[in-house]
Amino acid sequence: MDLFRPRLSLGVRLLALDDLGRVLLVRHSYVPGWHLPGGGVEPGETARAAAMREAREEGGIDLAEPPELFHVYANRALGRHDHVLLFLARGVAGPTRPPASRLEIRETGFFAPGALPEETTSATRNRIAEMLSASPPADLW
User: Which pLDDT tens digit goes with each residue over 89-114?
Assistant: First the structure.
């Protein structure tokens, strides 16, 4: 192990929109609020594959097309070396199965960007607003 190289933590989130322009959100059992589905990139897995896996595991959806990379964010809440890649998928069909783990995911739903649940986290609201606006996204999650 090289003691002089910082360890990089890499996660993904998916901003999935259905044909009505509604956003898929999930409510976890272990953290408050509504979030975009996502999680860590597994060893040997590409970030895009991780986003597709998280869509299945947390959202119960299968993406017909690979999602596109929207932006790379630094996530200082989890340390100096944590980064989140936000992927965008449009035209997503509703859940085809329940989330893989009801122990992890309590609830899922599609919501209009202007009618998000009150408990939607500020980071989630900001990412949705960035996607809808023409302004450049922030660099911090």
Answer: 999 987 767 777 678 899 999 999 99
Domain boundaries, the chain: 16-132
* Band of pLDDT at residue 80, cut at 50, 70 and 90: confident
Q: What Å distances lie between residue 119 and 26, 40, 95, 122, 125, CA to CA? A: 11, 23, 21, 9, 10
Residue position matching structure tokens 């595991």: 57
For residue range 110-137, what is the model confidence (pLDDT) as tens digits? 999 999 999 999 999 999 999 999 789 9
Element (H, E) at 126: helix 122-132
First CA to last CA across the chain, in angstroms? 29
Confirm if 128 and 113 have CB atoms less than 8 A apart: yes
Interatomic CA distance for residues 90 and 84, integer angstroms: 19
Which residues does 112 contact at the CB level (< 8 Å), separation at least 6?
A: 20, 21, 22, 23
Beta strands at 82-89 and 9-16: parallel, antiparallel or unpaired: parallel
Which of the following CATH numbers is that of domain 16-132: 3.30.450.20, 3.30.360.10, 1.10.580.10, 3.90.79.10? 3.90.79.10
